[in-house]
Design a protein that fits this description.
With 446 residues, the protein is of the alpha/beta class. It has 2 domains: 8-321, Alpha-Beta Barrel (TIM Barrel), CATH 3.20.20.80; 331-444, Immunoglobulin-like, CATH 2.60.40. 25% of the residues lie in helices and 24% in strands. Helix 3 links the parallel strand 2 and strand 3 (87-93). Helix 2 crosses helix 3. The longest helix is centred in the first third of the chain and has 15 residues, at 67-81. The radius of gyration is 21 Å and the shape is globular. This is Glucan endo-1,3-alpha-glucosidase agn1, putative. Residues 1-20 form the signal peptide. InterPro entries: Glyco_hydro_71. It comes from Byssochlamys spectabilis (strain No. 5 / NBRC 109023) (Paecilomyces variotii).
Length: 446
Amino acid sequence: MLLFTTSIKAILFLATYVTAQSTAMGKNVFAHYMVGSMTSSEAVTDVKDASNAGIDGFALNVQSTDSWSTSAISDLFDAANGSSGFKLFFSFDMTHFTNPSQFLPLIQQYHTNSAYFLQNGKPFVSTFNGGTLTFGSGTPGDGWNAAFRKPLEDMGISPFFVPDFDDWSGYPNGFISAFPVVDGAFSWESAWPEVSQGQANVSDVVDATVLHDAHSVNKVYMMALSSFQFKYLGQGQQWYRRGELNFAQRMGQILQLQPDLVEVVTWNDAGESHYVGNFWPEQIAGSNIGAYANGFDHKGWLQVLSPFIAAYKAGATQISSISPPSGAAAVGAMWYRTLLKSASCASSISGSQNADDALNFAIILPTDTSGVTINVYSNDNRIASYAGVSGLNDQSVAGLQAGGGQRVEVVDASGTTIASATGTKDVRQQSTNPVCNFNYEVVGLS
């Protein structure tokens, strides 16, 4: 079974910056990682790239204990152990497992590994879904206690359990009291607006509710950060969840709410298009994912993510406090869809009506910024200009036009272009192949 540029110089520059800016406050930022077939060298590359971006570790989405999965897990732990402090923890995908007994041996095997992430000295464990499963008990909370926590404790293992149980029917209200088995909570679905919400921006109401309830009983909250969702894998699996400014807006919400941990969704999930790092050919082999993900590099988003991580760890509460690396005039990215929403194939995508034909950017400027202008071009026509301010500047600029010449320029007071990003793909009015591709072209500043 198989699952699923920014320049190296820029990434290394940001890595040095994040390391220097991080504090001892203990806040950790992880990236959700889809475990799939891979080579040991690919594991090393992923760990190195994520670490250079300021990410503390991977939440390993485990869907199977077959050999292809356990081999990849072994390679990832070897890579993490060969790094400088990069950590891993398991996030078990409960859409694939039917009982914790299927994966408890993995926890038993790896919980003492030096690369396994510990919270309060306990092995950190998470899930994707599972909030409706009872495993023969009267309630899901009792079921997870009987089938997960108690067997581990009988082995002498006390897990720090922070699952994503937002599939529970009452979520988020009353979740913490209904699940005394947990040490905290993670909310996957709150990372984006629902398709049914129309052209709404992402909300942090669920996050604020669960965070408050968790903190009231000395438990933790891990908050999701993501760009957007696009999936195109056939009937019932074709949707778009808004990403025009979702990434930047979510960063602002995280800084305001100050969750205990952050999980970036995702490092490599090409199937849902919200990857910020590498995805490897063998991870998506045998699927149609490559038809809409290959050639769409999202690493430009790391230019925005790394300074955000530094600001979060330093206790910043506003996006104006996010700063570029010392000496950098500007860092950031622009992104746009390469197909207009009026394309006739768009009706095949649930949520396509919520998209905007827009060129989007997130640009981080220094604290002493003055006289800087951000110019936005589509089809080589300037469609907007904005006065740059210190911190994170983000805009979704309507007026994306078919053709080439999609770019953003950062110009100083003297009229000199100090940074720019130019798209490598033209925008089309209609799709020229069977895929109605709503994936984003993402380009980092240079």
